Amino acid sequence: MTSTPGRTPGQVLVVGSVNIDFVVRAARLPRAGETVTGGEFSRHHGGKGANQAVAAARLGARVTFTGAVGDDDNGRAAIAALSAEGVDVSGVVTLPDAATGVALIMVDAGGENQIAVASGANARLASSLVNAALAGRPATPGGAFLANLEISDDVLLAGARFAHGAGMQLIVNPAPARPLPAELLQMSPLLLPNEGEAETLTGLADPARAALALFEQTSAPVVVTLGAAGAMLVDDGRVNLLPAPSVEVVDTTGAGDSFCGAFAALLAKGAGLDEAVRSAIVAASLSVTRPGARDGMPSSVELARAMP
């Protein structure tokens, strides 16, 4: 893997969300007004932005994360968990008048779930705070910017403007899907939706047609993830289907975040598009063989061993 002359490889800037996930697994989901007992409780670090930052860091990228937490025990624990993974958390803002984001998740024996999210500090993260967090950072060409849509458009655009001006590759995981700002599309971001998100963005159920439509909007490559079927890469109007290895699935939580973080890390380190997508597919496949969103994310050594 080689780097482009004049670039500083391996840098990934993630702007996104931080949550704490409170999960109860029970035999069945409760109906309105009903209490279901006998469940098992677990607590996990989450948030798509934070998860993607961890996935990139485990593959050797130098990751800086910008987001917001509350001045509470959950926020301090979230920052400590990111720091322990080698993520630079100097861009994380602690808001004294907001709670750290939390997700309350109920999962039944068949894997169906009910989720309620209190965005907390994530919803209070403002573009001015992002600008202040990024103001002192060097604008050295190279690396990748990665964001998702668990933040506001203003925050997304603030991070994208900084990264675009710094010559970084813009990567956006449009999840949860909503219309993308025209200004962002003009920056030609590389989009990483899953097939459902691609349909929401374009109104096209066929993932190939949806990917081509997104390519027309951005004039940049598009990668549509297809779960167990792998991923679809559209570049220069060509559609290339890249398969996933067959694995024994234990838990699909965080597989998309693992893919996005791995893809950004590989691209930032100088990999070509095809190599980055293939590696990200394997990283996501490894992640589903173990329980938990972050616990299953592979290291660079594990990924190298698993590559065909």
Query: What is the end-to-end distance?
Result: 16 Å
**Level-2 CATH architecture:** 3-Layer(aba) Sandwich
Mean pLDDT: 92
- Overall tally of structural domains: 1
Strand elements, count: 13
CATH class: Alpha Beta
**Helical stretch tally:** 11
Topology-level CATH name: UDP-N-acetylmuramoyl-L-alanine:D-glutamate ligase
Rg is: 19 Å
SS content category:
alpha/beta
Which descriptors apply to this entry?
disordered N terminus; alpha/beta; UDP-N-acetylmuramoyl-L-alanine:D-glutamate ligase; six-stranded parallel β-sheet; 308 residues
Short description:
By secondary structure, this protein is an alpha/beta fold.
Describe this structure in words.
It is a single chain. The protein has 308 residues and is α/β, with parallel strands linked by helices. It has a single domain, classed as UDP-N-acetylmuramoyl-L-alanine:D-glutamate ligase (3-Layer(aba) Sandwich). The chain is 35% helix and 24% strand. The chain has 11 helices and 13 strands. The strands form 3 sheets. Strands 5-4-1-8-9-10 form a 6-stranded parallel sheet, with helices on both faces. Strands 3-2-6-7 form a 4-stranded mixed sheet. A 3-stranded antiparallel sheet has the order 11-12-13, sandwiched between helices. Strand 12 and strand 13 form a beta hairpin. Helix 7 packs across helix 8. The N terminus is likely disordered.
